[in-house]
């Protein structure tokens, strides 16, 4: 799905060890967002952080724990993101979600340029452009 212009970013903060039916919670959120048709999703594992417990989790301490923070970011139109929120109500027992208005700029790769221009060459620059 292509997205250009005003959008909404939903960022969900959970713990790496959080699960949904024996799978990582972040995995389930991303796959539901994909099935829901949202424009984009990514997961970033934190190296340090704390949440409601105020206990700091860090990779600097030798530990086998999987209590590191995980950030799931979803981007789409405001309407689509707000329609997806009930999915999070079902999935996230504890965590934080943040909604932020953003401006989306979609960049096309060479295969998309080929489909659009028939040559694979970059789109012509506007007059006076570089």
TrEMBL record:
Belongs to the UPF0166 family. This is DUF190 domain-containing protein. Pfam families: DUF190. Transmembrane segments: none annotated. It comes from Streptosporangium saharense.
